[in-house]
Amino acid sequence: MGMHSVLEVITGFLYSLLVLAFFQPILDKIDNYYMTDHYAPLVIIVSHVSLGLVAFSLDSWSTSRGDTAQGLGTGAGAALASHVNYQLGLLQDPPLSSLPLTLPPVTTGLVLRSLLRFAIGVAVLLVTRMVMKAVTIPFLCRLFGLPSDDVRQARQQMKVELPYRYIVYSVVGFSCVCFVPILFWILNLD
pTM value? Predict the structure, then answer.
């Protein structure tokens, strides 16, 4: 299958089911806390960074370490964006009279609008990632006294790779959940 064996995929799927079974009863409470509590941003950042530090016990460089940091960073950014959206009043539940929601008829205008939203959203996220990557790696290299001329070598240092992935993908996750929807609203594409 390439990178992972069939047994690893099955095991990962079963672990996911186990985690969902454990957290499903309290997901509403976690969601409510993330959106409403004053200390939620701090808890989000500390919990995601702590999960990453627990997971990164490897002595040598591994792509899985960066991938895990990337996933945790994206999740932290999306959770922070949900908090900001709620605090700004941007997460409005539909009125009960509009439930159940129905799909609009598929028209040429709807398809074109969807493609435009997709193109703008992807472009914004790619530019965000590119800018953050260009700023973060040299900053971290300077901060830790490492040469920044070889980006690949610098990124294999745990003290550069983990903060780099967290910072870049937290901003990307935040942009995806908060900034891009606001941009769609401004462009009347919401």
Answer: 0.84
